[in-house]
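Narrative of activities, Objective 1.

The group set out to show that a structural description can be obtained from nothing but a protein's sequence at a throughput compatible with the screening campaign. Below is one input-output pair from the validation batch, recorded exactly as produced.
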Amino acid sequence: MEDKRLISELYDAIASSYEKLYGEEQLAKLFEIMKYLPERSFQAVLDAGCGTGLFFEKLSEIGREIIGLDLSWEMLRSARGRACRFNVHLVRGDLEHLPFHSECFDLVVSVTVLPVSSSNEQALLELGRVLSSNGLAALTVPKEAKIVEEVLRTLRQLNIRIRGFYEKSYIKDAVIIAER
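Output recorded for this entry:
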């Protein structure tokens, strides 16, 4: 729990400057993800680790109901304006203990959240739990071999099929598209 508190405090502290520091980089990751998603509408979309809500506009173009989840109160406070504009529901929660019913999202997006999770395996277990049958997960993780291997192995153990793995030189993370 101490780790969670420290992570929350860190993101609380940088919430007001987050987009200036990381906005362009994070949007580049989202645009890369969007290239690999099928052209269809999703009923329920989870933005797991939504931060300031940078992705809400784009996700609202492909999803009917969007839920933005974050551990940081200040990040959620920063996301509130966008959430209202794009009819996104905000939830404070922990990626390793998601406050949702099983199999309730047909798209889960999680951009650069796993590295700050205390247990990638537990976070992926939870993401898999809330992913509906035939649902898609779109994740980004740092290109470090150890993290990538752990995430890919865990997804396979959860019977979540890797649909695509992409490493582009112009973004810092690898993109993983997986399906149940």
